[in-house]
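User: I'm curious whether this sequence folds into something compact or stays loose and floppy. Could you predict its structure so I can see for myself?
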Amino acid sequence: MIKPKERSNIMAYSVDYEVALEVLGQYMQPFVQAEYDEGKKESPNQAFLNYCRTRIRALGDLQDELHTTDTELIAKIIDPKNSKFFGAV
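Assistant: Here's the prediction. I'll summarize afterward.
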């Protein structure tokens, strides 16, 4: 049987995990938009498209491979002060 404190920890990890997935999706959006905008141009810059696609793919991989037990990584993802972890677009 799961003790109340353990249940509370599990629920907190689950909420943080869901928040981290959402944050990763939000980080992905500017790259999706930039790829779309660049792709509409008459002469899109292939290097920039590749850059956007690489970032989208990496963030998607992180979403796919993230587990509720990755508490240290989740903490980094959801920390609004941790700009060094994801950097600017």
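Summary: Residues 4-40 form the longest helix (37 residues). The CA atoms of residues 42 and 53 lie 19 Å apart.
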